[in-house]
Every structure is written in structure tokens, then in C-alpha cells.
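Section 3.1: Structural characterization of target chains.
Under the original work plan, the team committed to producing a structural model for every single-chain target entering the pipeline before any wet-lab resources were allocated. The record below documents one such target. The sequence was received from the expression subgroup and is listed exactly as submitted; it comprises 657 residues.
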Amino acid sequence: MAIFLKIAEWMLFVGPLVAATVLGWGLLTRWAPPSATLGEKLLFSSSLGLGLLSYGILACGLMGWISRPVFVILLGLFFVVGFLLIRTQATGTIPFPSTHRSRTNDPSLTLSDIPFGILLFLANLLTLILCFLPPIDLRLEWDSLSYQLAFPKIYFREGEIRYIPFSHHAQFPSLMPMLYLLGLTLTNAQTVSVAKLFHWSFFLIVQACLFLWGATQPKLSARSGLLAASLFAAIPVAFTEATTAYSDLALTAYVALTLYCLSRYDGDFRWLILSGACAGFAAATKYTGLFAIGLLMVLGFLVVLPNIGRGFIQVLMGMVLAVLVASPWYVKNWLWTGNPVFPFAYSLFGGKNWSGELARNYDLSNKEFGAGRDLSSAALSFVSLTFNEVRKSPCARQWLRLCSQKGDCTSQWKCGHFENQDIPEISLGPFFLIFVPPFFLLISRNLSLSLIVPAGGLLIWFGWWFWEAQYLRYLLPALALSCVLAGFVADQLIRSGRLIAGITRFIALATIAYGLLFLTARTATWGTVALGLLDPTELQRLTDQTIPGSEVLRIIRHLPRRSVIACYGYPFGFFIDRPYYWADPGHNRLIEYEKVKTVKDLIAEWSKRGTDYVMINWRFVKDQRFAGWIQDGVRQGLLEVIGRDGEVELLKVQKGG
């Protein structure tokens, strides 16, 4: 029975994907450049179609039309409109691979390349299985349970997309959360698998982009494309992201597609139009996607240099389209918070329920990751990233002059790290150290756009990442671009002679297998849960062990439906099936803690928010003054403890107190 449920969930994902792709294909029958291959048309149809589907969900949500019947009608419209566009345009037959440019390399694959294809298939199969895992591996699901899935669940419960005042994350560009909202709505929020599969689809899109980058462009080959796709699929942080409901792989896909179009530019302005559309969707996915528009400008002017007069206008057209595509999220922010890039640029725009102190602390929290920003740290970056080890150079807090301690940091969990945790599933793997540096030794004077563009994009993105926010998954777009270079290097070495070819193949296969070992181990651990093969009683026991406050969450499910819960130290709002808000002082200005002197003052602040219950995870709440207020409230009968599970406590606010 369980396997049939998984098949049903798969079909609920395939249906919207097909509808989006059909609409995208219909639009591309008019706008695709004549030199585009069938593979490229399919790639851009799915990518642009999913972006448009996200906007359709946004429009329905803003109008208060969140329901399964409405979304089914929307998908039907996508399919019908796309089908009509296809019928009314003469599509013709487009050859693959493209022959519009002269080629210098043999594009064919050989039998010796089959192992790379097998490992690539294995990576996608295992990540697909893990997409069906319930959200219980909290090490890797923190952001999805805090806001990527949590806020769409609020929209689903309320039946509309509305302003969420307690978290700045809710104001981020939300192309992916709209697709997650679709997945949750189609399943009545009973499973997250359909939502996760949308992010997994962008994992495939990145690989397809990397393969086509090699298969269709000069100086490269189908083998270099296969190597690039395989190396990317085996990066632990990449394949782990593919099993979660995050946004980074979607951003990676749209950034890679933006630059792919630039590298394919042959004088036809439609490549720059496609590049602009992809850059716009990148900016609609995350704020860092705005850099895609910057890359379009900088590298776009570079690729049109031979015909700068007409090319200049074409690049501007692409940039204007990018801004228009991205604008709905930024206009919404401006209307709701007064700041189009909330919570950033607070000194320029201000922002609702925010302050200068919160803005400074948030900016600082991003810069605390990783190493210093000096030359020694830059020189060691390949080694540091590979081993997630930056202690040979100043750590971020030392560089920021926040800490003078030498050696390992024991007081700050992110000091000297590129991620929240040092676990293999979110590491970089060895490819960045092995294959990327040799590229700069193999470059020649007659490099084509197919290599200049990804190299330029890699350097620019890495420069921003190194200076601003050394968080590993923020580097994923640069990693995808580096895979193009790595595939080129490996392919060139394979062509250099039998001995070097054998050594190169072995190193490449070992690099890919290294990453897949961790993916295989994770699948072995969680596969039975993902496939629904675990006994329900055992699954409940596992859930209780891994989700903090499970007993408290069960009590919450039986509270009156409109009960409002103030949460302290408990960010996993996805599990809370009642209206809630984050009441911690570091998140917002909903509660004016400067006015709070006693527990009665605190309860008065809660009352302004209509608070009925308070949920506290004491593991993350260390404020002794706050703890004293809670103790006073219980002692005076103003608060009643109605549930406790480990360090998680649920209290009822006595209205008559």
C-alpha cells in the first residue's frame, strides 16, 4: 500500500511539471533562437514554465484563492494555453547537437564513459528516494521547517498569501515557496514529498544545463558535459539540497541558465532575452539572485563586444526583462514593509517591525561564517573549502574584531566553519581542489565564450561570497560553473594519452564515488522511512525521538483552532498546527521588550498579539531575566504549564490574571 501512496505523490508532482513544461514549450516556439537544440528547448521549457507556475500560484494566493480546485484549474490553463501555442506555431525539426558553430572536439561518448552515466543515474535515483522522507532529519531541514515550508503551510491554512510580521524570511523572494505551496495544497499538507520534488527537479535542471554546455558548444564535448553533470551531482552539499525544500538549487539553475545563454550568443538577440528571463527568475528565487542580473550586464557586454552597437541594446533589453520578471516580489515587499529588499538596506529604506540594531546583528550573523577576508584566507580557499577547515587563517569573528581568541573557538558555533555543522552530507567534496585549479593552467589564448563566461561568472560569484557571506550552500552557483571548467579539464586530460586518460578517469570516478558514499549511507539509514516501509509504531517512535517537543505538539493539535501561540526558541513552525509567531527579541519588534519590567508587562505585550499560549524551548532560551518572568508568572497563577516534553514547555496564559 505504501508504494502506491509514493506513486500517487510522484504523479502529483509530474502533473504540474508537465503542465509548466507544455506552457514553456509553447512560449519557446515563438521565442527560441533558431540555433537552439531540442534538448535546449526542453531544458528552457521546464525552467521557465516552473517559474511562471510559481507566479501563477502567487497571483492566486494574493487574491485569496488557495485551494486544490483553483490550483487544478490553473494547471489545466497552463496545459491548454501551452498546447494552443504549440499548435499555432510551426515548430519544425531542430537538429541535435547544434551545428551553427564550428566544433573543434569530437562530441561522441565512448563505452569507457558509461561508468559516469551510471553514477549520475544513481545519484539522481537516491536523491529521488530521499525526497519522500518525512521532515525528521532536522540537521538538514532547519530552514525548510522554519520558513521554506512553514510559511506556505500558513498560507495554505489561511487560504491566502498575507503579510507575516514575525519573520523577515517571509519577505524574501519566494519563487520556490510558491511551488511548495502548490505541493502542500495538492496533498492537503499531509506530506512534504511533492513539495521537495520541485526542488529536486532543479537538481536535474542544473545537470541538464551542464551536460548541454558541453554537448552543444565549441571547445567542449558531450564527455566534458557528462563529467560536469556527474561531478556536480556528487557534491554532497548539492545532492543533500536536492532532498530538501530549500531554494539554493533553483537559484543555481537560473544563474547557470543565465550564463549558458550568454555563452550561446551568436548575434541572435533571443539568447539575451532568454538570459534576461532566467536572470529575472534567479532574482525572484533569492536576493542573491540579483547578482545574476549583474552577471548579465558585465558578461553580456563582454560577449557582444564584436558587435557592441547592436549588442549593447540587446543586453539592455535582457536586463529590462530581468527586472520586470523579478519585480513582483520587490514591489510586494515595498508595499508591505516599505523596503523592496527587506530586511537589507535598512539604513536606506527602513522597514516594518525592524530596527537598526536588528539590521546590524543580521548583517553580522551572515559575515560570521567562514574565514577572514584577507589574502592568506583567499590563497587557502581551495584547501579550506575542501576540508571545511579555515583555522590556519583568521576566522571570521577574529577578522571582524569580535574575538581575540587563538585556535579553535569554543564559544561561537559557526566560528571557523562554512556551515552550521561539520557533517559529510553538507561538505564540498574533493573535486573543487582537484579539478578547478588546473583549469587556469590549461587555458589558452583562443578560449571560446563557452569557457570564458563560466570562468568569469565563477570568479565574480566567488568574490562576492568570499567577502560577504562564506556560507557553503551560498556558493552552489559558483560550484555549478566550476563544474563546466572541471569537465573541460578532465576531458582534455583524457585526450592527452592512454596513461593520463586512465589516471584521470580513475580520479574522476573516485571523486564522484566519494560523494555518493555519503548519499548511499544516508539512503541506507533513511530509505525504509522514505519508502514508507517502516512500521507506523516504529515511525512514531522515531518521530518522537527526532522532533523536539513531540508531546507538546500533540497537545497543540487539540487546542481551539484559533488559539495563538507565542514561540520562544522554537523555530520549527511547520509542526505547529495553530496560529503562531516568533516572540524572541532577535527576530522582530512585535513585542517591545524595553518596556517589559515584570511578568505582567510581558503578558500585556502578549495580549496585544492575542496570545493564548506560550511555547518555549529552553535549550535555546538562555535569558535569565526572561526565565525569572516565566517563573513569577507560574507562581502567581498568571501562567499555567499544560505540557512539557524534555526542554520544550507549553504554558497557558490566564486571561483573567
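The chain is about 60% helix and 5% strand.
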